[in-house]
């Protein structure tokens, strides 16, 4: 999982008081996500349609229970680390200026993908008690959002270089989707129809 950790780089300081630290860029990136109490991105239908005109082929605006818990219980109480982290997916995103260039919806979808990815990484690496909040439906939804985002990025010359980054994240999520049930040692995760395995 070394490659995965580099893509969504963060650090966890397991000291006596179990402080959780995030690179300051990552902390600001995640804490500025506009998530409603209903676990949705605060994006209007009109704004979403402006970037994804096909109403039958749009990203989901839902945030998973795992990501919502991670955001509120871990990210919001994290200690920003000003030491800096190299080789993180945030540098090309922030350097693109995509949020400031009238593509706020795209930027917020990127933020949601980053949140979902980091929440899964945290559960996988540090806190298996969070497995009960993981569902295959949520992982599949995030992977579909990445594919739709990559289609948008690929059609915009200024942002095509970001496609490879997000394709790698999507591959890593696929790995977790296929492997996480083998790592829970008998615990089950929810499937699309609500059943467990």
Textual characterization of the structure:
The protein is mainly α. It has one domain (2-183). It is 51% helix and 5% strand. It has eight helices and three strands. The protein has a three-stranded mixed beta sheet with strand order 1-2-3. Strand 1 (11-12) and strand 2 (20-23) form a beta hairpin. Helix 4 packs across helix 6, helix 6 runs antiparallel to helix 7 and helix 7 packs antiparallel against helix 8. The radius of gyration is 16 Å and the shape is globular. 32% of the residues are buried. Residues 1-17 have low confidence and may be disordered.
Overall tally of structural domains = 1
Based on CA atoms alone, the radius of gyration comes out at 16 Å
Largest sheet: 3 strands, mixed
Shape: globular
- As residue ranges, the low-confidence spans are 1-17
Order of H and E elements: HEEHHHEHHHH
Which helices and strands appear, and what pairs or packs with what?
Elements: H1 2-7, E1 11-12, E2 20-23, H2 24-31, H3 45-51, H4 65-75, E3 79-81, H5 90-96, H6 104-125, H7 136-154, H8 163-183
How would you summarize what this structure contains?
The protein has 197 residues and is mainly alpha-helical. The protein contains eight helices and three strands.
Could you name the key traits of this structure?
51% helix; three-stranded mixed beta sheet; mainly alpha; 197 residues; 3 strands
């Amino acid at each position: 999982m070394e490659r995965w950790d580099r893509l969504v780089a963060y650090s966890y300081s397991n000291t006596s008081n179990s402080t959780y630290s995030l690179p300051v860029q990552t902390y600001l990136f995640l804490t500025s996500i506009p998530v409603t109490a209903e676990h949705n991105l605060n994006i209007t239908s009109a704004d979403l349609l402006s970037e994804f005109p096909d109403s039958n082929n749009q990203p989901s605006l839902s945030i998973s229970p795992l990501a919502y818990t991670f955001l509120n219980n871990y990210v919001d109480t994290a200690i920003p680390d000003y030491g800096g982290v190299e080789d993180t997916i945030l540098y090309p995103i922030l350097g693109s200026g995509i949020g400031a260039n009238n593509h706020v919806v795209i930027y917020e979808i990127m933020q949601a993908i980053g949140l979902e990815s980091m929440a899964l990484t945290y559960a996988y690496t540090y806190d298996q008690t969070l497995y009960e909040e993981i569902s295959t439906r949520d992982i599949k939804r995030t992977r579909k959002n990445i594919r739709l985002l990559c289609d948008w990025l690929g059609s915009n010359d200024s942002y095509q270089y970001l496609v490879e980054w997000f394709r790698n994240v999507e591959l890593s999520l696929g790995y977790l989707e296929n492997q996480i049930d083998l790592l829970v040692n008998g615990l089950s995760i929810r499937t699309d129809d609500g059943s467990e395995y």
